[in-house]
Amino acid sequence: MKYDVIVMGSINMDLLSHVDDFPEERSNVIGHYLERSTGGKGSNQAATVAKQGVSHTMVGAVGNDPFGHEILANMKRQGIDTNGVIIKDDVATGTPVGIITKDGSNTFIGILGANMAMTAADVDKAFENIEGSMLLLQLETSRESVLEALKVAHDRGMTIVLDPAPSACCFPEALAYADIVTPNLQEAEAIADMTIDDWDDAKAAAKRIADMGVDNVVVKFEEHGSVLYRAAEKSYTLFPARRVKAVNTTGAGDVFAGVLASLMSRGVDLDTALKKATIASSIKVSRNGGQDAIPTPDEIEGIYAQSIAD
Question: With contact defined as beta carbons under 8 Å apart, do 137 and 9 qualify?
Fold first, then answer.
């Protein structure tokens, strides 16, 4: 079957504790409430693509356990095509535990479970009966599964968008296959091996990453926005952030990547896609909630049209 976007990546049951501030070492804080929701960067990106109305499928893995079955039901309710999701009998579903503070900041302990049990053979089996013009993936599944997906997509001539997250899982071989790489601040610092304090640093980091074999690098510079470096043109383009009150930053990068890939799969140029992806992530951080808080195309287009008018 032919899709516009194939999303491969992690599928988790997120357990999120909402607190005022992060606890200090060896201290306890009182949480306001515990939120349980379908997450994982791959699942979040697939949910974003689905919400944009783009034909897609999800490749990933869950355990044959209550969380896994609940996640599959939730994904189907979100409109996600789960034909490429593998159910693992011998390992539990990924279950990260996170802390969300009152200003929207977050930190996670990543228990990745079935995601890290994905094999190259699993990827080959998932790709047997699917085709796509674009592959969107991150690094929260096993290294061998990531490399196999990248090789398959490259051999098929697919456009590859790599969200190199989390930074601890990044490896140089992955970068060389990607057409577009979208690191956040911490990931860009880790890949480029430098500290980023201002726009000049962000530009320098983007070029360093491009020099590793990437055509287009988008460094997301937190609340400031992002910078795109095009290796072929040796040019930089800045994309300022849209100012909003942050409530929950969880999943903002996934929304950014999902909207970017969705729009490009429909032939939208990279600059316009980045502007709209920036708007989409700003909407996401202004809301509480998981995949239900992902913006619709109408919401994104409305703000984009207003920005053009202004």
Answer: yes
pLDDT at 159 > cutoff 90? yes
- 22 three-class SS: coil
Q: What is the largest CA-CA distance in the chain?
A: 56
Q: In which residue are the tokens 């997301």 written? A: 220
- Distance from C-alpha of 301 to C-alpha of 101, rounded to nearest angstrom: 30
Cβ(216)–Cβ(232) below 8 Å: no
pLDDT at residue number 309:
72
Percent of the chain with pLDDT over 90: 73
How far is it, in rounded angstroms, from Cα 10 to Cα 115?
6
Q: In 3-state terms, what secondary structure has residue 265?
A: helix
Q: How many residues are listed for the chain in this entry?
A: 310
- What are the CA-CA distances from residue 152 to residues 46, 62, 80, 200, 219 (Å)? 19, 22, 22, 36, 26
What value does the mean pLDDT of the chain take?
93
pLDDT tens for 25-37 read: 888 888 898 988 8
Q: Beta strands 84-88 and 56-63: pairing type?
A: parallel
What DSSP line would sit under 125-146, residue for residue? HHHTT-EEEEEEE-SSS-HHHH
d(CA 175, CA 161): 10
pLDDT in tens, 208-262: 999 999 999 999 998 889 999 999 999 999 999 888 888 888 789 999 999 999 9
Pick from 238, 138, 232: which is nearest to 181 by CA? Answer: 138
CA 45 to each of CA 258, 262, 270, 273, 276: distance values in angstroms, whole numbers, following the listed order? 5, 10, 18, 15, 15
Is pLDDT at 122 greater than 80 in this prediction?
yes
Judging by DSSP bridges, how do beta strands 225-230 and 235-240 pair with one another?
antiparallel
The token duo for 139 is 């690094």
First to last CA, the chain: 43
Give burial (CB, 10 Å; 0-12/13-18/19+) of 84.
buried
